[in-house]
Design a protein that fits this description.
homodimer
């Protein structure tokens, strides 16, 4: 039985008769190939290239959803059979995951794109935190006792640098409000299994790899309080998603992704440092 | 006696009755403050801020020209007395310096700039290597037996990624031609006094500093074959120049400069690796 993903925080959704991704109960995520543009084909091309690429180190492959090929499925918009990418559903191991979707890079367009696409992205990049911070939050949900806090798209789009800092604090607090308690900061962001360590691994790879440029790609942070409290691992994960705009690196590092990633790392580091300051003051 | 700098490879030049920088015989570089825009004021503001900033580590300060205040001087365009920045002439210690001027960053504009300025930069960034490589060569001179090779501005503006690789090879070769011999690669780019080590120091600082965003700023590489052959140090230097577009970092790292710097580091590393391969083959 296919259904609409419960924990999707950004991107096109399979609701109100629209075309969007579906999941099943066995941990698969089905992403429809669009026919209105080249995105689907591009993403499929990337997954084919990446999954057969022997130069990807094992510890880097873990950041990417597993690719299981394509499958013809009834599309969510009622338009009939349509090819779907079959991917790993990265939320399926989590009961109540808090999720941040962060689009990395100070530029979401690329030279090979159409002029209209470039102008559209250029405008969006300037009016969100993309240009100023080198990344923008695209969507999120944060779990707390009363359920999920999942701000509307319009609100997310207007986030400032200070909003980003607040979100990163709330993400690791037991409360969702103006006075975060940083309960989980040390274990989620810090330590050798923490998110910062994972981001540093990614950074090291991006300083070297010249195969792909990940335009408009997101880093997804997942953290499951229940898994953490039950001592399950991993309770926090870092994944890369959305490869519809990956282009050939042509022997040059992805300086756009790398710069944005370094900026995001600095933000997370500062929240971790603040949390230590706040604990010491207590 | 003031004169036109002999080793200026980019920027406005004090020739043909135009306004440009001047030097004297005691190691000073006089840069006129423009009155047609805010550049001069901005650069002066930066030098004032930077030179009194106690949070700049000593090893980072060495990358910047020493600032000696301002002075009223007869402008090179004959327009009379005009305030000039008084800076260290970073070429004065070198007899025949080979110089590369590399404008760092995949974006030379900034959100605070005027729309006209942004559009102008946006176009230039797309049509040079700025967007694709995260940096562009703005000017250069390479010394060899027959004098300096100093390509025209028009040629430099059309450099491709492959041209950049060729230039980085020629910079450390005893000949200027299609078959570089990499004679000086190991000592100029490699080693603990080499350019790569200096660039890595800068990188480490840029991963952390959130005070300034260095838009449209250049890294200058200087290398003096004669100093090298005579065993003088430093025979190779890395300097930062052009701060007319430095803006407040607002607590965010300069991800634009950092990304471009990492890309440039990768290019230099590859030339160094190629030179070792070529030596082993000899």
């Amino acid at each position: 039985m296919l259904k609409v993903p419960e924990h999707q925080v950004a991107g096109r959704q399979a609701i109100d008769g629209k075309l969007g991704p579906l999941i099943d109960n066995s941990g698969h995520f089905y992403k429809p190939l669009q026919d209105d543009d080249e995105r689907g084909t591009r993403e499929l091309t990337f997954y084919h290239s990446f999954s057969s690429n022997t130069r990807i180190p094992h510890h880097i492959r873990r950041f990417f959803p597993v690719f299981h090929g394509t499958q013809l499925l009834k599309a969510s918009d009622g338009s009939g059979l349509r090819p779907h990418l079959v991917l790993q559903d990265i939320t399926s191991d989590h009961l109540n995951p808090s999720i941040l979707d962060i689009k990395i890079g100070s530029r979401t367009w690329y030279l090979e794109a159409s002029n209209a696409y470039i102008q559209n992205c250029f405008h969006r990049d300037k009016t969100t935190t993309t240009v100023s911070l080198g990344f923008r939050i695209c969507g999120l949900q944060i779990y707390n006792e009363s359920g999920f806090w999942k701000p509307e798209r319009k609100l997310v789009r207007n986030f400032t640098a200070d909003d980003v800092r607040s979100i990163l604090r709330m993400f690791v607090s037991s409360n969702v409000g103006p006075e975060p308690d940083f309960s989980f900061a040390d274990s989620v962001y810090g330590g050798c299994d923490g998110i910062l360590e994972r981001l540093m691994e990614l950074k090291t790879w991006f300083e070297d790899q010249t195969m792909y440029h990940f335009c408009s790609c997101s880093v997804l942070l997942l953290f499951d309080k229940e898994s953490f409290l039950k001592g399950k691992t991993p309770f926090a994960e870092v994944k890369l998603i959305d490869f519809a705009h990956v282009v050939d690196g042509n022997g040059v590092i992805d300086h756009n992704f790398l710069g944005g990633l370094c900026s995001f790392i600095k933000f997370v580091s500062q929240v971790l440092a603040d949390s230590k300051g706040s604990t010491m003051e207590d």
